[in-house]
Write a structure and sequence with these properties.
Layout: E1 8-11, E2 16-21, H1 32-41, E3 45-50, H2 67-80, E4 87-92, H3 94-105, E5 110-116, H4 129-139, E6 143-144, H5 147-156, H6 161-167, E7 171-173, E8 179-181, H7 185-197, E9 211-216, H8 224-232, E10 237-240, H9 247-250, H10 252-260
Parallel strand pairs: 2-3, 2-4, 4-5, 5-9, 9-10
Antiparallel strand pairs: 1-3, 6-8, 7-8
C-alpha cells in the first residue's frame, strides 16, 4: 500500500498515534479544535491532521481515485510524519469512509476506526448533502474578482452565508488577477460519485478491528436500519440528539466526552 505525501500538521506529543480525517470539501483545519481539546484531555495521544487528496493544499486527485487510494496516501503521510505502529483512525463523513478503506487495505496499519456520522454502506444520491453543495459549487465560475464576488455567486445559488464562507477557504490568488478555486471541482465530482457508491460493510466483519460510530440526531446519514446492522456486527453506535451531520461543530463537548470513553 503506497501513496503520496499529503499536506498535514500535528498536535500533541503523546505516543498513541491518532489520525483525524475531515469530510468532503474540507481540510485538516476543520478538526483542529477537536484535536486541541482532545490532546488537552488526553496527553497520551499524538494527532495527525492531513488534507485529504484533492483537498486543501494536498496533491490533486489522480484519475480513477478511490477510497483505497486515498487511504494509501493517508498511511504514507502518517509514516513520513514519524507516526509508528498501528494508527487510531477518526473520520468525519468522507474521512470515516477513508478510515474504513484503510482498515481493509492495510489492516496492520490500523488499530481502530471511529466514525463521525457516516455509514459503511453506499450513500443514496438524494441523501448526500455534499453532493447538493458540489452541484452548486460546480455551477459557480472558475474565478472571480475577489472573495466578496465569489461569495455572492455562491449565495445567489442558494448556499447559506456560513456554508459559502466555509467553501471560500478553498480560494487562492489567480495568476491573471482575482481569485480562483484551489481544488479541481470536476475531479472531485467524479470521485464523489464513486466514493458514495463504495461498499464498506466488510470492514465491520473483520475480527479484532474495533469500530465505533456516533451520529447526529438531526442528520440522516446513519439510519436506524444502519444502526441495527452496525451493532449486529459489534460496532456500537451512539447518538447526539441535538447535532446535525457536523457533530464536532454542533456538540463539541459531548463528542469529546464520548471520544474519551474509547
Amino acid at each position: 500500500m503506497t501513496g503520496v505525501i499529503l499536506a498535514n500538521f500535528q498536535l500533541g506529543e503523546g505516543q498513541r498515534p491518532t489520525v483525524l480525517l475531515h469530510g468532503f470539501l474540507g481540510t485538516g483545519r476543520n478538526l483542529r479544535s477537536l484535536a486541541a481539546a482532545w490532546s488537552a484531555a488526553d496527553p497520551s495521544r499524538r494527532f495527525l491532521l492531513p488534507d485529504l487528496t484533492g483537498h486543501g493544499t494536498s496533491p490533486p486527485l489522480p484519475p480513477g481515485a478511490t477510497l483505497s487510494s486515498m487511504a494509501a496516501d493517508v498511511v504514507e503521510t502518517a509514516r513520513a510524519a514519524g507516526l509508528e505502529g498501528p494508527l487510531d483512525f477518526v473520520g468525519h463523513s468522507l474521512g470515516g469512509r477513508v478510515s474504513l478503506a484503510a482498515s481493509l487495505a492495510a489492516p496492520g496499519d490500523v488499530a481502530s476506526v471511529t466514525l463521525l456520522d457516516i455509514t459503511p454502506g453506499p450513500i443514496p444520491p438524494g441523501l448526500s448533502e455534499s453532493g447538493k453543495v458540489l452541484e452548486k459549487l460546480r455551477a459557480a465560475p472558475a474565478r472571480a474578482a475577489d472573495r466578496k464576488a465569489m461569495r455572492e455567486e455562491l449565495t445567489g445559488r442558494g448556499l447559506s452565508g456560513p456554508l459559502s464562507d466555509w467553501l471560500l477557504m478553498n480560494l487562492e490568488p489567480a495568476p491573471e488577477g482575482g481569485v480562483r478555486w484551489r481544488f479541481d471541482r470536476e475531479a472531485l465530482g467524479e470521485f464523489h460519485a464513486r466514493m458514495n457508491g463504495e461498499q464498506l460493510w466488510n470492514a465491520l466483519a473483520r475480527p479484532g478491528m474495533p469500530v465505533r460510530c456516533i451520529r447526529g440526531g438531526r442528520a440522516a446519514y446513519v439510519s436506524d436500519d444502519d444502526v441495527a446492522r452496525m451493532e449486529a456486527l459489534d460496532c456500537p453506535v451512539d447518538t447526539l440528539p441535538n447535532a446535525g451531520h457536523f457533530v464536532h461543530v454542533d456538540e463539541p463537548d459531548a463528542l469529546l466526552r464520548w471520544l474519551l470513553r474509547g
